[in-house]
Amino acid sequence: MSKPVNILGIETSCDETAAAIVTDGCTIRSSVVASQVDLHRKYGGVVPEVASRAHIERIYPILSETLSMALMGPADLDAIAVANQPGLVVALVVGVVAAKSLAMIWEKPLIAVNHVHAHLQSAMFDSRQIELPAVALIVSGGHTNLYECASAVDLTLIGKTIDDAAGEAFDKVATLLNLPYPGGPSIEKAARQGDPKAILFPRSMLGADSLDFSFSGLKTAVLYHVRGQDMKGASRVEFMSSREIADIAASFQAAVIDVLAAKTRRAADQKGARTVLLGGGVAANSALREALQNLCDTTGRTLCVAPRSLCTDNAVMVASLAYHKYKAGQFADLTLEPKASA
Question: Which helix (H) or strand (E) holds 270?
Fold first, then answer.
């Protein structure tokens, strides 16, 4: 038997400080995540400088706890992995510097991981037999991407958002409706009490063959509904009943999900994919999971969805993807830098 490969993963791309140790890409030895939601809630979104300071304060205690939880020391590790792109540079740099420092001091290989690609790995984490190629939908606060997936390390971007990402639209609409941050869970909670057919919000498909996404028009339609078509009136939200707000939330959510599902089916049809992968923060949304499951059931495809515990940013996905890069010999050196975009 070959020796197990233990990889320490580090994730600081946005507002979670996370570290994890994963063996052979599939066995979680430890996972620690420090969320910053409470820090950013009063701003209604992530403030980069606040996020960076929190990462600096938390990164080494998180790393120490991760090693302790796994009952491991430096000698037990085979590589250090870090998400170095895409994300907030002032946040990414904290994790990158920590990873490079540990790789140098402990004399371990360094592996650079694309944060969005790692979300895809979360969808593959619990699946041993995935029929490839697959089509992967990654839906988060900053990205709405479609990939053709030939393997864990062979991904081709085939569709992306041209303006607001789906998660970003959820946050902005939640703000319009005076719902708490983060917007995704708040919209989903409100939508459960509403009628998804109450308001016919637009579904932007961008042409018959397009795999790209656009949610800015949908966000604006909600704004007009709340403020009036001339945008001269004050927000009517404070005068709306909870049922009216629920109807707006449900109708907005249905419009987003209709587009995501339709584009995913279009991509799977175009690429002849028999498997659909779903990951990213918005993948925790129950209505989206149900819609894609129905899509796969009716078209004879298999759906692999990230466990809810691995939908939001975490380091398990970083270490898991890094295992496949380790086996492929895809290493970085100490000149590695953070990048805002992939």
Answer: helix 242-271
